[in-house]
Amino acid sequence: MNKYHGRSTTVLRPRNTKEVSEIVKHCNERRIGIVPQGGNTGLVGGSVPIKDELVISLGNMTNIRSFDDASGILVADAGCILQSLSDYLAPHDHIVPLDLGAKGSCQIGGNVSTNAGGLRLLRYGSLHGSVLGLEVVLPDGTILDQLTTLRKDNTGYDLKQLFIGAEGTLGIVTGVSILAASAPQASNNVMLALPTFDNVLPLYREVKRQLSEILSAFEFIDRRAYDLAVKHGQGRALNESDVEGAECFVLVETSGSKREHDEEKLNTLLENLMEAEPSLINTGVLASSPAQFASLWAIREGLTESMSKEGKAYKYDISVPLHKFKEVIDTTRDHLQSKGLMRDDAVKHVVGYGHVGDGNLHLNVVADAYTPEIESALEPFVYELVAKYKGSISAEHGIGVMKTHALPYSKNAVSIEVMKRIKHLFDPNGIMNPGKVLEL
Amino acid sequence: MNKYHGRSTTVLRPRNTKEVSEIVKHCNERRIGIVPQGGNTGLVGGSVPIKDELVISLGNMTNIRSFDDASGILVADAGCILQSLSDYLAPHDHIVPLDLGAKGSCQIGGNVSTNAGGLRLLRYGSLHGSVLGLEVVLPDGTILDQLTTLRKDNTGYDLKQLFIGAEGTLGIVTGVSILAASAPQASNNVMLALPTFDNVLPLYREVKRQLSEILSAFEFIDRRAYDLAVKHGQGRALNESDVEGAECFVLVETSGSKREHDEEKLNTLLENLMEAEPSLINTGVLASSPAQFASLWAIREGLTESMSKEGKAYKYDISVPLHKFKEVIDTTRDHLQSKGLMRDDAVKHVVGYGHVGDGNLHLNVVADAYTPEIESALEPFVYELVAKYKGSISAEHGIGVMKTHALPYSKNAVSIEVMKRIKHLFDPNGIMNPGKVLEL
């Protein structure tokens, strides 16, 4: 890194793509490291300088360039805040096919650069499918204009895909063309209590079969996580007596175009589940009002806050096969137990929750304090566990600077070697977000 | 090309990835050109040797490696025929998120390599979203194993995307991991006659709003194309008196999980459309039986055959903004008229049809015979027209060998330069499907 002599603590805020291009060209000629920055809401340090890189903030580039309400195609500057795009689309009966907790400050360019997942992935798929075009300033300052508004275009390599999830290491995304979805007319949800984790997969299968195209979320919450949410007053849903003996919970959401139809499907599903012998569920609560809909979601969305009220959370955002969710949580807890770390003044809770539909488990280890002892018990243990199941050590948060050392647990040597060659091809001087994704 | 000394007319049919790797390594060391070949159903010559390249057919690699009916993730050898995969998934209540006319012989590896579009794209999105992993033999024989079965994995660059649509020029796809969709429980369709093309977009907007998540096709057919289909006995749907004065037609398909709900939505749509003043449509016919459903589709699917019965068809598979569909057809006809070519012994018909939802127009110029005069009147005229609207000269068929010269009409110089550098990075000896996508 000592070949970079950027002015540290400098943040530039260009107003348009041409200015970005000129800055990058200047930096490339002088070998000045650059960190592209969107809303700076990432969780793995991808938008933070390591040393003395120049920060290029996209925050001044906030124009919506075009929207076609027939095709649903939106073209916007990279600095547009996700919530602003949602607000812009609402009167046009469309939504961004992406929703995140950080929507109030994250930017669409950052979303694309980190391949953000979030709550709508089950329904609308990943950004690799919904992003139609990008405008990118390459590390030598060249503007790569692939800002097409076409849904189909099979003319040569789909270069834009490389920048989706590259975390700003191959260039700076300055413009995004994305396919917005029709706004659903009605949403509903139901919280289900399950006697055993073994029922989660049969339940998922049944729910997919019955709800099919209106299913928009299938979220798993293990018992300990649920209890912590309740303890800390997040949401309020099921009677204590009803959930006695429940090993885990599932929150199902529907979104569709006709409320009566969707409610009928959801009611029928719940009746079928309750009447089945043996039943896959202990009980289920269907939201009967917007307030209850919000209250059921509040349990799921309040989990992060509950953890932080309990102590310091080690958070692992992993993908593993669905049927291994519980095994990963239990094995981690057993491992910490065997190290004598499951005690009130060390690790208090090992809990799991996440997007079953996406195979994405959020494993949380809540400790009294962050300590080297706990950390060394957890890493590389968790990464090795994920690798054993051919999982991903970062389902949606990315690699950033925090996980570069762990990349080999999810990507083999050939893949990493090809990534390095791609990086070198685009950025031979290594100025673009150095030390992110790939180690220096 | 004269640096390649492969044994022409040689076809090798390896049985597994290791054999593919060994063959490719051998060829790379001896600078022998290779053409990877799937079902050989492409329309732009992408799987045909230009000179004396060795053909590697994937036809012997037909194993289904795994299927998980909870997640819907299917892993299969590249040589699996699309129809075989459909047949395999049917008893598991799943479908391949891709459907093509050539499904009886095209292979999933070829589908991925050409980024095939087809009839389900409107509903299930492109392969860039539904393909989860690939196994690829690189041009030096190295096996790049990215055959993950994870729906989410943000660990480094998404390399597999480069091979989707690269038409075998960067490596040979040998294995595919793909997200299958839940099989719809019910499908229905309606054929609508429109007084004027100007109503197509308002109609599309209204249909999307009312049918939303169950809309699975919105196909446009212009009057001349419809008349040719009827003339040649393709399907049988609307009364002659009802369609008098109709300028074009739209076929709408729904697919959903509950027949009664879907039919109610479709009936309501049709009633609303008929009752509106002024109405967007002249008339509409709703399929009331599986036979009628098939008969309505037969009009759309019989268009290609009708053209070939009328004469020789120049076919352009283009993407242009939706509101330009008619303009492109009319402008082309006017241009041929001005050249004196619109006459019975030259160009008989200029017709258009296609996937409105995808912005994909199939422009067909039906002539008495293929002649240099017609060809030079059409090209580069049509490509320039597409470029003027920032469209794509190949929406779904790809570039192959037929359109390499036309690539600059849809991709700018910077994009093509980056493509060339990517090609050189993966295939410095130029052995992998030489002369396809990029000119030699």
Automatic annotation (TrEMBL), chains A, B:
Pfam families: FAD-oxidase_C, FAD_binding_4
GO molecular function: D-lactate dehydrogenase (cytochrome) activity; FAD binding
Catalytic activity: (R)-lactate + 2 Fe(III)-[cytochrome c] = 2 Fe(II)-[cytochrome c] + pyruvate + 2 H(+)
Cofactor: FAD
UniProtKB keywords: FAD, Flavoprotein, Oxidoreductase
Residue ranges annotated for the FAD-binding PCMH-type domain, each copy included: 4-183
Superkingdom, natural source: Eukaryota
GO cellular component, one term: mitochondrion
Gene3D superfamilies referenced in this protein's UniProt entry, alphabetically: 3.30.465.10, 3.30.70.2190, 3.30.70.2740, Uridine Diphospho-n-acetylenolpyruvylglucosamine Reductase, domain 2, Vanillyl-alcohol Oxidase, Chain A, domain 4
Family: Belongs to the FAD-binding oxidoreductase/transferase type 4 family.
PANTHER family: D-2-HYDROXYGLUTARATE DEHYDROGENASE, MITOCHONDRIAL (PTHR43716)
Protein name: FAD-binding PCMH-type domain-containing protein
